[in-house]
Amino acid sequence: MNGEIAKILGGLVGALILIFLSPGMLKTARAADVGVIALGLRGGISTADADDDFETYEAYLLHDLPWIWQYSEAWGLQSKRELTAGVIEGGSQTEIIAGIGPTFSLLGSGDLSLDAGVGVLVLGDDEIGDQDFGGLVQLTVHSGIGYRITRHVRLGYRFFHFSDAGIYGGRSLNRHLLELGYTF
Fold first, then answer.
1. What is the distance between the alpha carbons of residues 182 and 21, in angstroms, rounded to a whole number?
2. How many other β-carbons are positioned within 10 Å of the β-carbon of residue 110?
3. Which of 82, 92, 176 is nearest to 127 (CA)?
4. Span 126-155, pLDDT tens digits
5. How many CB atoms lie within 10 A of CB 32?
6. Cα torsion 160, 162, 165, 170: sign
7. CA-CA distance, 69 to 66, in Å (whole number)?
8. Contacts of 173 by beta carbon, 8 Å cutoff, 6+ apart
9. Is 36:61 a contact under the CB 8 Å cutoff?
10. Which residues make beta-bridge pairs with 17?
11. Structure confidence by residue, pLDDT tens digits, 4-38
């Protein structure tokens, strides 16, 4: 089941990228427009298929990348780089986690965004509680939704999957995360 979810999310990310790579849609942002665009906190729990119940708390930073795919006057796909650092707790054990990867946000004329991305996650230990993740380096895929409730405050939900992609033969983990962010 975890592999199926990862394949579906990966396919959605790929489809979004291909849709917006049509000729004439790629625009490069000016260097002055590229920089830190948001920072915030996320927290959440694992899904029921884990050996232990896991809780996650992390800080994130989003940095603009210089590519924007403009689909229409109102809709576009924005590329970002995301950095995360935090902790994961499970089975009376707490370990650090850190991640990096590209994220793509489908933005409309309103305050709603649909987000998806991939990345690399590093665990402080590959065995947390009763769950053996197989290795310290994990591959990630995520999707979510965000809403700006004020000019600078954003609330969001993210479904986050990480696994060793079969490299080490370890287990995967799915998480539900809520986020509160500040946008610049």
1. 29
2. 9
3. 92
4. 999 889 999 999 999 999 999 999 999 999
5. 6
6. negative
7. 10
8. 46, 50, 54, 131, 133, 161, 162, 163
9. yes
10. none
11. 655 665 665 555 555 545 445 556 554 445 678 89
